Amino acid sequence: MKPTPEPRADARKEAVPDALRELVGQPVQAIDTPALVVDLDAMQRNLARMADFAKKHNIRWRPHAKMHKSAAIARLQMQAGAIGVCVQKTAEAEAMVAGGVTDVYISNEVIAPHKLARVAALAHQLAAVRGRLAIAVDSEEGVTRLAQAMNDARTRHGQAAVIDVFVEIDVGQRRCGVPPGGAAVPLALEIRKHAALRFAGLQAYHGRAQHLRTAQERRDAIGIAVDDVVFTRKLIEAQGVPVDLVTGAGTGSLVLEAASGVYGELQAGSFMFMDADYAQNERDPAQPNFEHALFVKTQVISTCATHAVCDAGHKSHAIDSGLPRVHAFDESSALDYFNGGDEHGILRTAASGQRLPALGRYLWLIPGHCDPTVNLHNFMIGVSGGLRSGKVEKIIRVDARGALT
Known about the structure:
By secondary structure, this protein is an alpha/beta fold. It is built from eleven helices and 17 strands. It has a domain at about 40-270: Alanine racemase (TIM Barrel, Alpha-Beta Barrel), CATH 3.20.20.10. Strands 1, 10, 11, 12, 13, 14, 15, 16 and 17 form a nine-stranded mixed sheet that branches. An eight-stranded parallel sheet has the order 2-9-8-7-6-5-4-3.
C-alpha cells in the first residue's frame, strides 16, 4: 500500500473557531448544542472491522467519502488499508485532493465542459505525485467530452496524464448507467480509442438494495445484479477487451458483493458512522457488527405534561430517510422523536410509565441519514471515552461541505 502523504500546507490551515478549538480536552458536557459528534472509539472499531472483513475476503475497499466529507477521515481509512475513496462530485474530489488524498474515484457522470476541465486538471495534479483519478461514464458523448478535456489539459500541463474510466451499468438503482449487456460494449471500445483514457472496468452499484429490510430481499437483488455484471463482462471481453475490475456495493449489501467472486472492490461508506435507517435492516449474519458512531447532541429547552422539546430540528439533521432516533443508554431512557420544525424536536416517552427528560438534560440523536446530516455542519466534534463520560479529542473539519458541483 502506498503511504498516504500529509496534506498540503494550505489544506492544514483550518479555520476552527476558538470556541471549538478550546473544547479539546474538555468533557462531553462542555459541548454546546446542537452539535454533530463522532464517537471516535466506535468509529475506530467500525474501521477495524471493515479492514478485517476486506482482508479476510481478499477484496479491495474504496469507501465513499461523500458520507463523511472529511479528508482527515479519508486518510485514516487509507492508513487502515482502503485503496482510496469514492466521491460523487468534482468539488468533493478537489476537497479530498487538497487534503492529501491521492487516490480518488468520481463514481458519477460529469458532462459540463467546465467541470470536465476541472476533472482533467485534477488528474494531472495527481499524476504529478503518482496519484490516481478515476471517473464513471454512461454515454459515448461523455467519453468524447472527457477525452477532449484530458487532451486540452495535456497541452496546458505538458504531461501525458491518463484517467481511469469505468463504464456504469444500471444493476437496479434506476438512476445513471446503461442497461446491462450490449449497451456497455461500445462505451468500452470508445474509451480505448483515446490515449488519455484507460478502460478500468465496470461500475455496478445497486443503491436500492442497500435499504431492503430483509437479508433475503438483499440477497435476491444482488444475485440479479451479479448475473447482469457477469453477462456484461462476457460481452465486453468477447471483443478482446479485459474487464479488470468490477466496483460497487454499499454498507447494506457488501457481504454479498464480497462473496460473489465477481466484484473486486467495495464502495461501502456508511459503515463508519451508521445511521438510524441502516439500523432498520435485518443484519446478515456474515456482516460485521457496525456500531452507531455519529450523533447530534441536543438539549431539552422546554417541557410540559405531554412532551419535551429539544433544540435540534431539521437544520441539524437530515430527514430524507426519516426522523432521528433518540439514543437510549438503557430501556428506562427510551424516547421517541417527532417533527418539531427547523429548530426544534418534539420528545415523547416510548412507553407508559416512563418520565419525560428534565429541562436542561442533554440527549443524543442518531440521524436518519448520515451523509446529508454531515453536509449540514462545518465541523464534527470527535469524542473519546464514550458519550457519557468521554472527552473531546479532536475537531474534524467537513472539508467537502457544500461541494455540490
